[in-house]
Design goal:
Length: 51
């Protein structure tokens, strides 16, 4: 087994979108998909905050 030196790579900054809900998968997943679709189709993306 060969040991290689770790490589450091430059990456662009990332934007993270995090949403949490409580409930069953059947209730929550469609709701979260709707929120994500609304966010990504919004021309003011990034300005609107979701609860």
């Amino acid at each position: 087994m060969t040991v290689a030196e770790p490589t450091i790579k430059e990456i662009e900054p990332l934007s993270i979108l995090s949403i949490r809900e409580k409930g069953t998968f059947e209730e929550v997943i469609p709701q979260l998909i709707g929120i994500l679709c609304t966010y990504f189709s919004s021309p003011q993306r990034g300005e609107k905050r979701f609860p």
